Amino acid sequence: MKTVLIFLLCSSAFLCIMGLPVSSDMEYCSVYAEHRNCNKIYSPVCGTNRITYPNKCIFCLESRMKNYRIRLDHEGRC
Q1: Which neighbouring-strand residues pair with 52?
Q2: What SUPFAM superfamilies does this protein map onto (predicted)?
């Protein structure tokens, strides 16, 4: 029993460190799944990589290219 618990804790820690996508981020970005050309409306968002993106669409395109390792930290500039 202890072995299983330790394995689960280690697995969870590993997944957090690897920055695997959070399902809500993937669901959020699915709105922009078909967009190849994002609009130019400036509505900045901050990624977990501490980079400010011009809008959510551009953030999602970049996040998708990096296998969702970048997540949305908050709206507004970093």
Answers
A1: 46
A2: Kazal-type serine protease inhibitors
Picking from 43, 47, 44, 40, the residue whose alpha carbon sits closest to that of residue 62 is 47
pLDDT of residue 17: 46
Q: Which residue has the higher pLDDT, 9 or 26?
A: 26
CATH of the domain at 65: 3.30.60.30
Task: Decide: 72 and 62 in contact? Cβ < 8 Å.
Answer: no
Residue type, 30: S
Answer yes or no: are the C-beta atoms of 75 and 47 closer than 8 Å.
no
Domains identified in the chain, total number: 1
Query: CA 36, 23, 52, 16 torsion: positive or negative?
Result: negative
Q: Are strands 72-75 and 45-47 parallel, antiparallel or unpaired?
A: antiparallel
- Contact by Cβ (8 Å): 59, 45: yes
Q: Which two tokens stand for residue 67?
A: 């296998």
